[in-house]
Amino acid sequence: MVVLKFGGSSVSSPENILKVLDIVRSHASIKQLAVVVSAFGGLTDHLLHTSRLAERGDDSFKQELIKIEDRHLAAIKDLIHAKRQSSIVANVKFILNELEDIMQGVFLVKELSQKTLDFILSFGERLSSYIIAEAFKENGLPAAAVDYRNFIITDNNFGNARVNFELTNQNIQNYFAGNENLLVIPGFVGTTKHGATTTLGRGGSDYTAAIIAAAIEASGLEIWTDVSGMMTADPRRVKNAIPIEEMSYEEALELSYFGAKIIYPPTIQPALSRRIPIRLKNTFAPEAFGTLITHSPRPSEAPVKGISSIEQISLLTISGSGMVGASGIAMRFFGALGRKGVNVILITQASSEHSISVGINQKDATRAQQTVEEEFRLEMQAGIVDKVQIENNLAIVALVGSNMRNTPGIAGKLFSALGRNGINISAIAQGTSELNISCVIQKKDEEKALNTLHESFFLSETKTLHLFVVGTGTVGATLMDQISGQAANLYKGHNIALKLIGLSNSKTAIFNEAGIPLDSCKEALGNSTQPSTIDTFVDKILELNLPNAIFVDCTASAEVASVYNTLLDKSISVVTPNKIAASGNYHTYKELKTLAAKRGVKFLFETNVGAGLPIISTLNDLIRSGDTVLKIEGIFSGTMNYLFNTVSADKKLSTVVQEAMDLGYAEPDPRIDLSGKDVARKILILARETGENLELEDVAIKPFLPANCLQDGPMDEFWQNLRDYENTFEAQRAELENQGKGYRLIAAWEEGKARVELREIEKGHPFYSVSGSDNIILFTTERYKVQPLIVKGSGAGAEVTAAGVFADIIRIAN
Ligand SMILES: NC(=O)c1ccc[n+]([C@@H]2O[C@H](COP(=O)([O-])OP(=O)(O)OC[C@H]3O[C@@H](n4cnc5c(N)ncnc54)[C@H](O)[C@@H]3O)[C@@H](O)[C@H]2O)c1
Ligand SMILES: N[C@@H](CCO)C(=O)O
């Protein structure tokens, strides 16, 4: 025999009942089946609501009863041929009249005992089992509905009755022995020895099915719901959750205790005790394998089977010097909680014995605190036990899997995945069975933790990065194009999934938690009317609280740079070509680096020097491998080099500056390049990376333009002043050219001093031949003393800079 159980969603409409019929029919030997059904989906709640109305003396309960009647009669009309309808309708009306009489009684006396409520709720399953059995018969199946009376016998603990297995098993065995039909059995309901109707509590229909399966020693128990088996995590919260094909009873119990609602743990106990295989199946996708729960599932490679969570948790902590070495404390503590019916979900105690913490349902927190304080009143007065601490708004996330046993590294991976994403762990528990590792975290981090852990343990092959990009100018727009063009390859070839979640310019922003389509993100931002500031953008990032979040700043804004601190502190990595932060005051630079290290995230700004050239990483490699940097020197400005290579008698300074801007080499304000400030920032950043504590003011700059070309003020004035000066400059430049020399803006750092200066470079010098907007950087070190290590190449421009930013993003994935 096989017992099938169909829950409320599977029998919520006539169409669904026909699906159930197909499933039953698809089984090889129908007479070897027993079918347990729940009430039509949502009906139990509807009955409860109607009862409460009646109890309150609200006569609108009558309208609700009419709706209940209509629903059942409509099902009969849809499922049963007209010829047979009248007798079935009459029977259903007869049952419903009884329901109405009881409701009327509740209405009149305005009283609803649990006993009466159980009786009222039983109508849901009584009606569904009768109508479904008739629908089966209608379709040629030899079905019969079981009269719930004298079937499952319970005590009189109404609402959550306990089963008398001796009488129940006898009844079930007798029923099955003398019956040739396909039995359709109402789940959830039972009867006392004296004939009063009871209900079996939450998950009651699963329980009915498991009791029957155990009593008749069925060869299988199939639980049919609306999901394709137990998933690796709750699919509503973890989009990438996948079904678990096989698992052990103990894994299923652990996962369901920890919130996987697909089966209610105590209900499977009878099946478990007889080792009856349980299959979880989807009525709406019967072809899906579902989950098979057995005593000895096929061994799987993965140490973790699933990740579960419980929300609305409070952590109650008792601590104090009087607890150390004192026996009986735990007994009194748990005794006090037990007497008040407080369910303890998780327990931790450090070996110092100084404190015990328990995770409990938040609704029990006040009661629990009072009872424990009452129990330890004297010790608290004596000051040897502290006031009981309660921390609310927490959640428990748990890794479950029997293969975790004796597998080193699981806890390490768990903690580092949570830590990297800024999720603080308030308490930890792991039994010696190593079947479950549980962590108490803030409720607001629950979804992030589930997704982080799911990615770490199930999708370790694929890493999803959530990007928040600010600035869609020269570099930002090109970065979007590059990511859009490369995302599919990164996913296929390198298991990196890039999701653009937020994009902003200085006026508006767009967000999409599922990912903004990359190929049209700039247009979407252009069409957006949602006003945005950097502060609202950051608020949204924090509110979304996504794992592996990266903030990419493609602006030149100090205001944007000022939010790095907040983001890094919340474990969000920062990638930027914006030099403001790394070249701002030393304290900020250091603080950001320290914060990133402390939070286990990255602050990457490789493109601050030499755009896409590997300058900062080369310097860091030299230092980390033990080399000593003696001198750094070179051409660091793409704009300035382009200028000195391009200005001629025919192309004056102002024309070439405009060209450098148009080519995307120059800073948004070209005076930053022309004044040498951009180069000063770069040499400063390199000096700092060597460990030097320098400020921008410490970099000596010899500007090559007169002060009036560099002062702040309207751009018109700047252009005018530049044009006024350009003939003078051209005369000097031509003179120098005649001498076989050229101008180069050189920056150098040596012996703790940094400088930027215009130099006259002779033909033949390595700096002379650096063409176009290229950069060249020479590192003279202990190991590269005779011949410096040289990095040379394109040092500015949208493509190379965006590529460098992109590389930093990928570095985080790796
Ligand atoms: N262009 C290069 O070759 C190069 C090379 C290395 C580094 N960088 C750096 O890259 C950054 C971007 O340079 P770019 O050439 O793309 O400049 P850009 O002026 O073309 O783009 C900057 C964008 O940021 C936007 N922006 C400014 N403030 C903002 C705010 N508060 N919120 C949102 N958006 C804001 C601007 O509207 C603009 O669209 C600069 O910091 C620059 O120093 C550029
Ligand atoms: N404006 C900068 C961009 C690269 O940092 C330059 O011209 O070098």
UniProtKB/TrEMBL annotation:
Q: Which UniProt keywords apply?
A: Amino-acid biosynthesis, ATP-binding, Kinase, Lysine biosynthesis, Metal-binding, Methionine biosynthesis, Multifunctional enzyme, NAD, NADP, Nucleotide-binding, Oxidoreductase, Sodium, Threonine biosynthesis, Transferase
Pfam families annotated for this entry?
AA_kinase, ACT_9, Homoserine_dh, NAD_binding_3
Q: Which GO terms describe its molecular function?
A: aspartate kinase activity; ATP binding; homoserine dehydrogenase activity; metal ion binding; NADP binding
For whether the record's keyword set contains Flavoprotein, the answer is: no
Q: Where does the signal peptide begin and end?
A: none
Describe the reaction catalysed, as an equation. L-homoserine + NADP(+) = L-aspartate 4-semialdehyde + NADPH + H(+); L-homoserine + NAD(+) = L-aspartate 4-semialdehyde + NADH + H(+); L-aspartate + ATP = 4-phospho-L-aspartate + ADP
Q: In which pathway does it act?
A: Amino-acid biosynthesis; L-threonine biosynthesis; L-threonine from L-aspartate: step 1/5; Amino-acid biosynthesis; L-lysine biosynthesis via DAP pathway; (S)-tetrahydrodipicolinate from L-aspartate: step 1/4; Amino-acid biosynthesis; L-methionine biosynthesis via de novo pathway; L-homoserine from L-aspartate: step 3/3; Amino-acid biosynthesis; L-methionine biosynthesis via de novo pathway; L-homoserine from L-aspartate: step 1/3
UniProt-listed GO biological process terms: homoserine biosynthetic process; lysine biosynthetic process via diaminopimelate; methionine biosynthetic process; threonine biosynthetic process
Name the cofactor(s): a metal cation
Q: What is its EC number?
A: 1.1.1.3, 2.7.2.4
Which InterPro entries does the UniProt record give?
Answer: AceGlu_kinase-like_sf (IPR036393), ACT-like_dom_sf (IPR045865), ACT_Aspartokinase (IPR054352), ACT_dom (IPR002912), AK-HD (IPR049638), AK-HSDH_N (IPR041743), Asp/Glu/Uridylate_kinase (IPR001048), Asp/hSer_DH_NAD-bd (IPR005106)
What residue stretches are annotated with the ACT domain?
A: 318-393, 399-477
Under the heading PANTHER family, the entry gives:
HOMOSERINE DEHYDROGENASE (PTHR43070:SF5), PTHR43070
Q: What family does the entry list?
A: In the N-terminal section; belongs to the aspartokinase family.
Q: How does it assemble?
A: Homotetramer.
Explain the purpose of this protein: Bifunctional aspartate kinase and homoserine dehydrogenase that catalyzes the first and the third steps toward the synthesis of lysine, methionine and threonine from aspartate.
How is this protein named in the record?
Bifunctional aspartate kinase/homoserine dehydrogenase I
